[in-house]
Amino acid sequence: EYMGKNDSMRRKRLLASAFVGGAAFLFSYKGLSTADKPQENLREVLLLETSSLEEGQMREVHVGPGKDDTVLVSKIDGKFYCTGSKCTHFGAPLAQGVLFADQVMCPWHCASFNIKTGYLEGGPVVDGLQTYEIREEGGKLYAKIPEKLTERKVPPMAKYDPNDHRRFVIVGTGPAAIAAAETLRQSDYTGEIVLVSQDENLPYDRTILTKVIHQVDVNKILIRDSSFFESNNIKVITGARVNNINAKDQLVEVEGREPIKYDKVLIATGASPRAPPVPGVDLRNVFTIRNYNDVLKVREATNNAKNIVIVGSSFIGLEAASSLKKTFKDNATITVVDMVPVPFQHIFGEQVGKTLQNLHQKNGVSFQLGKGLKAIQGEGQVQKVVLADGTEINADVVILGTGVAPNTKFISNVVELERDGGVKTDPFLRTSQQNIFAAGDIVSRPCAQTGKNLRVEHYIEAFQQGANAAFNMLGKLVPYDSVPFFWSRQWDQSVGYTGFQENFDDVYIDGNLDELKFIALYLKENRVVAASSMGRSPALMIINQALRLGLMPSAQEIKSGKFDLEALRRRVGEQKQGCRCQRERCCKKAPKAPETA
């Protein structure tokens, strides 16, 4: 079916509708939407006195009776703009974020939007902000506001053209894959887009799984529903395993199906949980968590469990500990086991790691640290965990949060891999093979800020790499230079991190660890290489941009007490570094002639 690029029957089927294999679910995820509706029943509303908003400022303004009936008013380059006031990821109030030139950054998870057009710029989002028409009269600012506010809008997508004979295949349906597919359509790509994934579900937000194990419903966390893919002629094949990429003949080889011919292919297969090499990991009720089916198994097994052991004080492990303890309270004992002396010590340092450990202990989670795992024992089903020092812990359920490995074995003889299995790319996310690109957890790419290769296994990085790879699949030659950002939520508290995950020599704490209100700066060779924070939004967004622009104070200045967050915000703002890739502009460009393979 897929071998001939000019198969008329295939093209008629594709033009009529996109095929969605596997299970399709209704979309109801609060943070995202699948359709952009025109604004109706407009009314003119007085926003504010124009003199009350200075250049580079933004303000949330109420425009209706409800507490959420708000818009964001900004002043950039002497002009006023009015947009939705809530981030389209989880509804964070953007007025609490930061505004750099025409880019507003969410205070929670580093999503960013063009304040002039509303379109997304980066971060874990697929929808932009709604924009509202405004006018000035007599020193006052008015806007045309619909009776029912819609905070978000879907970016404009190019229509599929059967005369465009290009076919771009994306292997995977995670955040990198969906970002790439949508960015292609937003950038005037009118050829075929085919997503192929072993996952049975349409793309969904995996980051939520371990945070609310017993409450999460895949129906409510889909990133897009089937109607979105159909209306934009993006073909999604789920439940399909890709066995090989034939680079010579440009074929994606799918188990049990005809190979798929491609002009460009993006590998975005993510990672899989890594089990420790100890006896008993294959016993019943020993789990890893990567997808929704894993969560369903954990949910069933833990319903009647009295003793739950979590191996690994990782993000997965401690998010699961928080979720399960909140669900079962004193009805279940939760014990976290790890060979490290302090959770997250290699990422956050000892002080911040101990602060997070204390947070869990105050809420009833127990720890056995500095002791490696020797064995998991039981008769068919797990009964206990044995540590390296001989300590035995009763266990009805064991959850392994012991790291992940890139899903790249199927291309080990196709593209150049790093020792850890990551795919080595250039700054444009191109692999060693022509017309093969990579994005997400598997990518090892040059880091402009450190001069070293960097592989990051986090949600936002995957989204942003997927979009960047799409631009380069279209020949735009946009280097990837974003500074990584990630977050974790445990016990209703968020901890964020931005930087390069390098080793560090020292940690400078600004704030109060006990109150969970601090900024930790990680220092190496007289420079700041990363930062973490709790309770100090939007500090990390400022530091994220300062790291990218090389504006952070030296380690010596930091240690001498010269860290001033507001001064750093001003320094970043003075660079006038706003949105760098405005999708509206991309979509309005004259389409390029189709590239030859």
Please describe what this structure looks like.
The protein has 597 residues and is of the alpha/beta class. The strands form eleven sheets. It has a five-stranded parallel sheet. Strands 21-28-22-23-24 form a five-stranded parallel sheet, with helices on one face. Strands 34-35-38-37-36 form a five-stranded antiparallel sheet, sandwiched between helices. Helix 8 crosses helix 10 (565-574). Mean pLDDT is 89; it is low at 1-35 and 584-597.
Keyword list:
single chain, 597 residues, alpha/beta, five-stranded parallel β-sheet, 11 helices, 20% helix, globular, disordered N terminus
Radius of gyration, Cα only, in angstroms?
A: 25 Å
Low-confidence stretches: 1-35, 584-597
Distance between the termini: 20 Å
Give me the secondary-structure category: alpha/beta
Q: What is the beta-strand fraction?
A: 25-35%
- Estimate the global geometry from the Cα principal axes: globular
Main sheet strand line-up: 15-14-13-19-31
Number of strands: 38
